[in-house]
Amino acid sequence: MPIPETQWAQVVEKKGGPLIYKQIPVPKPGPDEILLNVKYTGVYHTDLHAMKGDWPLTLKIPLVGGHEGAGIVVAKGEMANGLEVGDHAGIKWLNGSCLACEFCKTGDEPLCAGQQLSGYTVDGTFQQYAIGKAAHAIKLPKEVSFDAVAPILCAGITVYKGLKESGARPGQMVAIVGAGGGLGSLAQQYAKAMGLRVIAIDGGDEKRQMCKELGAEAYIDFTKSKDLVADVKTATPEGLGAHAVLVLAVSERPFQQAVDYARPRGVIVAIGLPANAFLKAPVFESVVKMINIKGSYVGNRQDGVEAVDFFARGRIKAPFKVAPLEDLPKVFELMEQGKIAGRYVLKIPE
After folding, report:
1. How far is residue 178's CA from residue 200's CA, in Å, rounded to a whole number?
2. For a FRET experiment, which of 48, 151, 219, 241 has its CA 20 to 30 Å from that of 36?
3. Pseudo-torsion of CA 164, 170, 176, 179, nearest 10°?
4. Rounded to an integer, what distance in angstroms lies between the CA atom of residue 41 and that of residue 67?
5. What is the pLDDT of residues 140-152, one digit of tens each?
6. Residues 91, 75: contact at Cβ < 8 Å?
């Protein structure tokens, strides 16, 4: 199929929005880039932050957001290795890095000072055709469906990396805060696939049902619990607390509360990124319990390969709903209201 000159996209023309659904030129790939005909793209809370521009990162304006795009490679530059025209591929949050600094050489590409971020510092996947650096785009098995794999490309990789960073071992218990959301629904499955036991923390009966279906051993509803810390501890062996805590929340309080129900030598992994929030923990309790508090960003290239492999082998099934690209503003409204169980995936027009 010939590549058109123009395409449909959701564009943020000024910080804070609104989104404008309009036609824009189709970009041309540079020497080390691919052009992806996007079929489906996930919607992530990061995309809402991008529209608002409320993170301390340089924001491209005008901006096409989105960073979980799955589709078909339709063009490539002469130095774009590892992918061929016709391959199925995904574009992730980390669109590109220098590949030459200390961090890139040691598998910490997300820490590269020269990183390019899809849907934030460079245009992303809320469009029909998107550009990605070939070194960071991930080749997808042709047997996997574009809609189902899209949420793996950032949300899946991110929680998989967080679980690895926690150091939790098979048989140990991990508390997942925000377990019923897009990240949490995947985190539960990766945890189970890695042999971990899950305590799900979230709010509402719809999320309770979903978490139970995903195999959580306990569900703590923070909207109904009279003592969340006690409830989490009760759900753990000997009442000592969780071996690891993944905090995926979009507000500050859960980050501060995690120390209270982590067991001695527990590891708290901060993944959620609420705007203008701070990590705070009591020094005495953190010291005498030997608590480890750490941040976990997106995974590197190998983490991406591993996360997709779990999915391709049928171990991960992301709960998602499908909406057309033009409905992105409605999806953002539901996201802000906390009414999304699982994820939304946008179908890109042909």
Report:
1. 8
2. 48
3. 100
4. 7
5. 999 999 999 999 9
6. no
